[in-house]
Amino acid sequence: MLTIHQSRIRFASAAIGALTFFSTITAASAETVVKWLHLELNPAYVKIWRDIADKYQAGHPGVKIEMQFLENEAFKAKLPTLLQSRDAPDFFYSWGGGVLKQQQSTGALKDLAEAMNANGGAWGKTYNPAALKGMAFDGKVGAVPFKMGVVSFFYNKAYFAKAGVDAGGIKTWGDFLGAVKKLKDAGIVPIAGGGGEKWPIHFYWSYLVMRNAGQQGFNAMKNGEGDGFVAPAAIKAGEQLAALGKLEPFQPGYLSTTWPQALGVFGDGKAAMILGFETTETFQRRNAGDGKGLASDNIGRFVFPVVEGGAGAATDTLGGINAWAVTAKAPPETLDFLAYLTNAENERLMAQAGMILPVAAGAEDGVTNPLLGESAKQLKGSTWHQNFFDQELGPSVGRVVNDTSVAIVSGQMSPKDGAQTIQEAIELEKM
């Protein structure tokens, strides 16, 4: 057995010595390979990660960071099988929520609680508390957080001006429907929709549930209290989504449009709005036909509106808490590298490139892009940050939520039947 090296975590002075339980690293060969599975499509962002990995390797002889890629839908389809195989990655992209919890319950993941809590929790304290909490279940930590996100509306300023729509005046769902009607009257497609992958449409239903039910009401639904997801607030959310669908707000063929294609529709000026991630400005450019998309100064942003009489607030946010999940058999070097990858210096670097809203304490000043800054400000003032419903409720129920959202907005299912379908899926999951 060859001793490779003894490593200490140097990602922040407060964390030095925090991870002594894996400070001595041994391996059976002269090189330890850490396999990193991601689904990032932007080559500029992948290069930033590669540069960070190369810098780490230079300071840690005998360790090789091997990056592997899977496209989003292929990733979701293949990961369960991959985790049970000999080719399982050492760490991989995670949306957290019920999906992560399920992976953790099968024994596929390494529990990071001991590492995070060592020496008074020095490592864990380097992250935004909400982000770290989102990765913890039943006292275990299954992933290392690296970014947070929020879903909001992005709009084409020129089209809004042409249609006489004031984005600042869109405060309620009624205001939003009124804006959609004005855009249609002006001959402009109101919204770029990605119904082909279904999950982009679930943003609408999820936000409407949040706005109607509020945090307490949503927690009661997911915990099976009262009427669960056939509660009046959930049915009303479906009715509001159906009302949007009746206005035919999306581009022709949206039911077969992928998310990248929807971003391209917005970037090509073929729709006035899109409900998307904080990175929408960057990705509309990448997916536009000319590779340039809308100019930054022609893109505005507004939060998802409240609903009249709802228990939710405009400051309640829906979005991701993303992390790197660590598999059970990953070598100790994996944690060492992840501590390095997500330290304040590297998170600041990623934020400056516009690729993340950082979770590392002290990296917030890296956010310089104005639209990203607006998202960061919204998150900072969030009164309730909810992970995506299709992640929060677990993979099986999540698929039903996505399918049902599309079925309701397209008029294929009634709001009441949709709510009942989701409730039945939750009950089936608990059997």
Short description, anyone?
By secondary structure, this protein is of the alpha+beta class.
Can you describe what's shown?
- Keywords: Periplasm, Signal.
- It is found in: Periplasm.
- Residues 1-30 form the signal peptide.
- It holds the Pfam family SBP_bac_1.
- This is ABC transporter substrate-binding protein.
- With 431 residues, the protein is α+β, with helices and mostly antiparallel strands.
- It has two domains: 2-141 and 321-380, D-Maltodextrin-Binding Protein, domain 2, CATH 3.40.190; 152-318 and 388-430, Periplasmic binding protein-like II (D-Maltodextrin-Binding Protein, domain 2).
- The protein is 45% helix and 15% strand.
- The strands form five sheets. A six-stranded mixed beta sheet has the order 4-3-5-13-8-14.
- Helix 1 (43-59) links the parallel strand 3 and strand 4.
- The longest helix has 24 residues, at 199-222.
- It is globular.
- The relative contact order is 0.17.
- The model is unreliable at 1-29 (pLDDT under 50).
CATH architecture of the largest domain: 3-Layer(aba) Sandwich
Q: Which strand order do you get reading across the main beta sheet? A: 4-3-5-13-8-14
Biggest beta sheet summary: 6 strands, mixed
* Whole-number count of domains: 2
What ranges have pLDDT less than 50 throughout 5 or more consecutive residues?
A: 1-29
Helix content: 40-55%
Summing up helix and strand content along with how strands pair, one would put the structural category as alpha+beta
The separation of the N and C termini measures 48 Å
Radius of gyration: 22 Å
Q: Looking at this structure, what is the CATH superfamily of the largest domain?
A: Periplasmic binding protein-like II
Instruction: Quote the CATH topology of the largest domain.
Output: D-Maltodextrin-Binding Protein, domain 2
What integer is the average pLDDT?
91
Number of helices: 17
Proportion of residues in extended strands: 5-15%
Q: Total strand count, please?
A: 15
Q: Globular, elongated, flat, extended or rod-shaped: what is the shape?
A: globular
CATH class of the largest domain equals Alpha Beta
